[in-house]
């Protein structure tokens, strides 16, 4: 699953640590999500979308047939 975390963070002038604090995760988790090494749970995806005041679909882009391991 692709995402727009880096772009959205930049539009808010937030660091990875800032975003992590906003959603209650570690900075390392933000890094992993941004590098597509970790797909967040649905609950975490909602929290991330909420801090950006966006829908999940505006943050995360689902690609049919693509797994986290591709």
From TrEMBL:
Q: Which CDD domains match?
A: HTH_XRE
Which PROSITE patterns does UniProt cross-reference here? HTH_CROC1
Q: Which UniProt keywords apply?
A: DNA-binding
Disulfide bond among keywords: no
In terms of Pfam families, this protein maps to: HTH_3 (PF01381)
* Domain HTH cro/C1-type span(s) in chain numbering: 5-59
Q: Which PANTHER family match?
A: DNA-BIDING PHAGE PROTEIN, TRACRIPTIONAL REGULATORY PROTEIN-RELATED-RELATED
Q: What is this protein called?
A: Helix-turn-helix transcriptional regulator
Q: Which organism is it from?
A: Lapidilactobacillus gannanensis
